[in-house]
Amino acid sequence: MRVYLLNRRLMTRMLMIVLVIGVSVLYTAGIQNGTLSVFMNNNKKLPIYCVEVPEKKIAISFDAAWGADKTEELLKILKEHNVKTTFFLVGFWVDNFPDMVKKISDEGHEVANHSARHPKMSTLSKEQIIKELNSTSEKVEAITGKPTTLLRPPFGDYNNTLIETAHELGYQVIQWDVDSLDYKDYGTQSIVDRVLKKVRNGSIVLFHNNATYTPEALPLILDELQKQGYEIVPISELIYKENYYIDHTGRQTLLDQ
After folding, report:
1. What is the Cα–Cα distance from 147 to 112, expressed in whole angstroms?
2. For the chain, what are the domain ranges?
């Protein structure tokens, strides 16, 4: 019986040592260029869904792929509320509406990359991903004078190849933690209620530039968020550029916090 107890204790100690060493190795391996990504589910890498910030600061974003009928009105609302946001543009949208791209940029909003053709990025090779990102960035830079540095994959679809390739090209990959579902056309109040219920410090809110009810919902949302004391900034002013980690929920946090 004593031998059994000694063996069990020894095995427990050995397992603890292996666990500590394993965690240390994984932690060290995850640090690259001053950042640490915490991966789950067979080391699946994650984009940024939201940010850990102490203050009441959030970002609002618009995806633009089809149509621009309501974009002018959205820009007017944002200007009236003195709010700057991020617009993720697809390459063919840039081709179709170059004047609108320039107006978005000229009014102080951030122009970001939403691919060239709006494909499911997880189905593409590394070479195809590079072509998608470079094509759109070059088009945007030709109009605005600035390349794109943020990427939102269409459909929110990504894999490790996409994230690794985007990082190699200097991009941070952005998702969202508050989805307005404005594209589903549930109505103005549905959009308002959904956003205001889910938003919190560090949230990234998703809208679409040509959804039916977004121009009606947006001023109501902005009024309430500003009343609650939220500062609304472009995504690049919300996220951390280095010395951060991303937890299993996609929340970006500084390493020293």
Report:
1. 8
2. 2-32, 50-254
Residue 248 annotated as catalytic: no
Run of H or E residues at 130 = helix 126-144
Residues 6+ apart with CB under 8 A from 44: 159, 160
Contacts of 1 (CB under 8 A, 6+ apart): none
pLDDT in tens, the chain (257 residues): 444 444 555 555 555 544 434 434 444 344 444 444 444 445 889 999 999 999 999 999 999 999 999 999 999 999 999 999 999 999 999 999 999 999 999 999 999 999 999 999 999 999 999 999 999 999 999 999 999 999 999 999 999 999 999 999 999 999 999 999 999 999 999 999 999 999 999 999 999 999 999 999 999 999 999 999 999 999 999 999 999 999 999 999 999 85
**Predicted TM-score (pTM) of this structure:** 0.84
Write the DSSP assignment of 192-212 as a string of letters: HHHHHHH--TT-EEEEETT-T
Name the residue with tokens 């000694």. Answer: 6
Q: Which of 109, 114, 118, 208 is catalytic?
A: 208
Q: Which residue in 63, 109, 114, 177 is the catalytic one?
A: 63
**Can you identify the CATH homologous superfamily of domain 50-254?**
Glycoside hydrolase/deacetylase (3.20.20.370)
Locate 118 and state its tokens.
Answer: 């709006």
Max CA distance (Å), the chain: 83
Establish whether 63 is a catalytic residue.
yes
> Tokens standing for 71?
């974009």
